[in-house]
Amino acid sequence: MSELQPVLLSGGSGTRLWPLSREAYPKQFLPLGSDDTMVQTTWKRVEPLTSLAPIVVANEDHRFLVAEQLRQIKAPTPKILLEPVAKNTAPAIAAAALCALEGGTDPLLLVLPSDHVIANAEAFRNAVESASAAAEAGALVTFGVVPDAPETGFGYIQAGAGHGVVPVQRFVEKPDAQTAAQYLAEGGYYWNSGMFLFKASRYIEELQKFQPAMVEAVKQALSAGTRDGDFIRLDKAAFAASPSDSIDYAVMEKTADAKVLPIDVGWNDVGSWSALYDVADHDANGNVCVGDVISVESRNNYVHAEGLVALVGVEDVVVVETDDAILVAKKDRVQEVKKVVAQLKHDQRSQAALHRKVYRPWGAYDSIDMGARFQVKRITVNPGASLSLQMHHHRAEHWIVVSGTAKVTRGDDTLLLSENQSTYIPLGVTHRLENPGKVPLELIEVQSGSYLGEDDIVRFEDVYGRSN
């Protein structure tokens, strides 16, 4: 039996869970439904099945989030394939398959979106083992979720007769309510989970039949890409030349070897706040309360609070409070949150992409106050980490150390600052901030100047390979 190679797809933006999920910090990196983040939970779910480290396909901008979150749970060092542009799932999986084949073996690829909830992890692992023989024999297996409601938000798979792994009769698009009810009544229809199991070589063979230009483009992107530690950067020009398509359209709907295994494992793609409400624990009044929430005569609500949120006499609403945005919506209209995100993007507002607290490979910063010609940030630098050697054309900076030790490069000078000490970085002076210690460095930064945007950074050296 071939070794099992997990492939975690982590390129989504999760805009329907705004304001908690944002482009720079989407839902797969959030702890939704457990103490672990969704990508961490996805890995833990499949770790008992394999001795191989995961292959992760991620957005270039999320590379350090993926690496750090897997490091936190002591996952084996992954290969992280970085997509320079979004081209949907078929090219992403092709890159993972080609990467898996590089070692001279031909593993079974278990392809998993990294932002799904599966309540019964053991049942899912059993399903993977049940599907392995068919995949080993050359089938391209997908997992169809046994429906418990006439859901209109998912595509469906009509399965052939039989038990266990059976041929796919057809894939069907998201139905209207009447058609979904008909599918549920007839039986033999399953939600399309977007999870797959097949040999790496078989996927490439089938993709070559139907999308040869895609295979060629991805091969070139991988061979011409750059490798930096755990990161494999696909060549942008080559990858951009690939057709954009989903695995369903590119392969699964065309191949004669598509098979499906029905599963009942408590699956949910957590595609909206109402979906998250469905999988969470409810109190006696049907409320889901995360954080500091007071509820008075209120029922069937979902509330996520980062401060104090009080409900009085409301039903069937979603309230999500973050430090820079609040969402209030009827529970049956949460799909329209994407309209809010579209408006934010149209207005070029930062809340579409960024939280007030922004994570960087060296740590994080939190913009705690801002006004005309000034901004105050709380900065955390991880032990042993450093910011780039940089300068600014439009702002000066004051740094005050709250805890830890800061090594500061300021022009030709090098300073070592401890708690309650500070320094000043004049406009136009080259500087760098480092944490040489063993504990996190916490400091307050006060910026002043005519322009305080994050794009006013000129980098001269950067250990993380950033150019802006």
From TrEMBL:
Domain called MannoseP isomerase/GMP-like beta-helix: residue spans:
291-344
| Mannose-6-phosphate isomerase type II C-terminal domain segment(s) | 348-462
Q: What is this protein called?
A: Xanthan biosynthesis protein XanB
**Does the record's keyword annotation contain Nucleotidyltransferase?**
yes
SUPFAM superfamilies for this protein: Nucleotide-diphospho-sugar transferases (SSF53448), RmlC-like cupins (SSF51182)
* Family per similarity comment: Belongs to the mannose-6-phosphate isomerase type 2 family.
Function according to Swiss-Prot or TrEMBL: Involved in xanthan production.
Documented EC number(s): 2.7.7.13
One MF term in the entry's GO annotations: GTP binding
Q: Which UniProt keywords apply?
A: Exopolysaccharide synthesis, GTP-binding, Isomerase, Nucleotide-binding, Nucleotidyltransferase, Transferase
Q: Which GO terms describe its biological process?
A: GDP-mannose biosynthetic process; polysaccharide biosynthetic process
Question: Residues in domain Nucleotidyl transferase?
Answer: 6-284
Biological pathway:
Nucleotide-sugar biosynthesis; GDP-alpha-D-mannose biosynthesis; GDP-alpha-D-mannose from alpha-D-mannose 1-phosphate (GTP route): step 1/1
Catalyses which reaction? alpha-D-mannose 1-phosphate + GTP + H(+) = GDP-alpha-D-mannose + diphosphate
